[in-house]
Amino acid sequence: MSSARFYGVSIFLLFTSSIMVTHAGNFYQDFDLTWGDHRAKILNGGQMLTLSLDKASGSGFKSKKEYLFGRIDMQLKLVAGNSAGTVTAYYLSSEGPTHDEIDFEFLGNVTGDPYILHTNVFTQGKGNREQQFYLWFDPTRNFHTYSIIWNLQRIIFLVDNIPIREFQNAEVMGVPFPKNQPMRIYSSLWNADDWATRGGLVKADWTKAPFTAYYRNFNVNTRSSTSSLVDSAWETQGLDPMSRRKLRWVQKYYMVYNYCSDSKRFPQGFPPECRHSRFL
Ligand SMILES: *[C@@H]1O[C@H](CO)[C@@H](O)[C@H](O)[C@H]1NC(C)=O
């Protein structure tokens, strides 16, 4: 890695974090609360959003705008305590039967047991590309930043700026890549105790309801946003050797499931994008 490039990336990170402080997105401006009535709330003059779930219903929100490529950051603090059976989904999606989708889903657990971060990529309506991870921190104690970098070459999932997954554009191998359908940002908190925690063995404990997840510091860089040179780093951003080392560290020590190594599931051979790289 050239030091100039590393320097550039550091400056970029400094710069985006200062943007987040000075121009933190406003939830009133950027999002609509879509379901769950009073269970979804915007607070602190638009600086904070909360979703909650009780026995009767979950709740959700979506972005007013659609985005085609970009870097999207959100800070989340997940349901604390006994969150078994709850799922907090945070994702980008277009609409229709051949939609594209980029997913983070946080599967809750009983107090003291780890959340699973479930990820998936849908292209042209087809998913089945799950990768799951434990996190290297307790996601319920503090806010952490979950980001998606989406450009023409790849999609990178990041947690606190550490890449956990890369989905490369493998169109040359006949794998569709999301590049024509603009996506909205969605999030919802819902009851999935039929499958989420230890495969559905552990049910939600409704005596602990309502369950609440917190959101803040939404930040988006897209082509349409007034972009300076530093702002548009995401457009060509890939993984430099240091980021790739971090990705390997996460995949080695924290990965729970990878569809690309589930040979039982693909007896006829792995999907073509799995051959692209050892570290998808
Ligand atoms: C919950 O904790 C159990 C026990 O440590 C673990 O096997 C499981 O992967 C954890 N996460 C979920 C979402 O089930």
UniProtKB/TrEMBL annotation:
<keyword id="KW-0378">Hydrolase</keyword>
<feature type="signal peptide">
    <location>
        <begin position="1"/>
        <end position="24"/>
    </location>
</feature>
<dbReference type="InterPro" id="IPR013320">
    <property type="entry name" value="ConA-like_dom_sf"/>
</dbReference>
<dbReference type="InterPro" id="IPR008263">
    <property type="entry name" value="GH16_AS"/>
</dbReference>
<feature type="active site" description="Nucleophile">
    <location>
        <position position="101"/>
    </location>
</feature>
<feature type="domain" description="GH16">
    <location>
        <begin position="21"/>
        <end position="215"/>
    </location>
</feature>
<dbReference type="Pfam" id="PF00722">
    <property type="entry name" value="Glyco_hydro_16"/>
</dbReference>
<keyword id="KW-0732">Signal</keyword>
<dbReference type="GO" id="GO:0004553">
    <property type="term" value="F:hydrolase activity, hydrolyzing O-glycosyl compounds"/>
</dbReference>
<dbReference type="InterPro" id="IPR016455">
    <property type="entry name" value="XTH"/>
</dbReference>
<dbReference type="GO" id="GO:0042546">
    <property type="term" value="P:cell wall biogenesis"/>
</dbReference>
<protein>
    <recommendedName>
        <fullName>Xyloglucan endotransglucosylase/hydrolase</fullName>
        <ecNumber>2.4.1.207</ecNumber>
    </recommendedName>
</protein>
<dbReference type="GO" id="GO:0071555">
    <property type="term" value="P:cell wall organization"/>
</dbReference>
<dbReference type="Pfam" id="PF06955">
    <property type="entry name" value="XET_C"/>
</dbReference>
<keyword id="KW-0964">Secreted</keyword>
<keyword id="KW-0325">Glycoprotein</keyword>
<keyword id="KW-0808">Transferase</keyword>
<keyword id="KW-0134">Cell wall</keyword>
<comment type="function">
    <text>Catalyzes xyloglucan endohydrolysis (XEH) and/or endotransglycosylation (XET). Cleaves and religates xyloglucan polymers, an essential constituent of the primary cell wall, and thereby participates in cell wall construction of growing tissues.</text>
</comment>
<dbReference type="GO" id="GO:0016762">
    <property type="term" value="F:xyloglucan:xyloglucosyl transferase activity"/>
</dbReference>
<keyword id="KW-0961">Cell wall biogenesis/degradation</keyword>
<keyword id="KW-0052">Apoplast</keyword>
<dbReference type="InterPro" id="IPR000757">
    <property type="entry name" value="Beta-glucanase-like"/>
</dbReference>
<dbReference type="GO" id="GO:0010411">
    <property type="term" value="P:xyloglucan metabolic process"/>
</dbReference>
<feature type="glycosylation site" description="N-linked (GlcNAc...) asparagine">
    <location>
        <position position="109"/>
    </location>
</feature>
<comment type="similarity">
    <text>Belongs to the glycosyl hydrolase 16 family.</text>
</comment>
<dbReference type="InterPro" id="IPR044791">
    <property type="entry name" value="Beta-glucanase/XTH"/>
</dbReference>
<keyword id="KW-1015">Disulfide bond</keyword>
<dbReference type="GO" id="GO:0048046">
    <property type="term" value="C:apoplast"/>
</dbReference>
<feature type="active site" description="Proton donor">
    <location>
        <position position="105"/>
    </location>
</feature>
<dbReference type="InterPro" id="IPR010713">
    <property type="entry name" value="XET_C"/>
</dbReference>
<keyword id="KW-0326">Glycosidase</keyword>
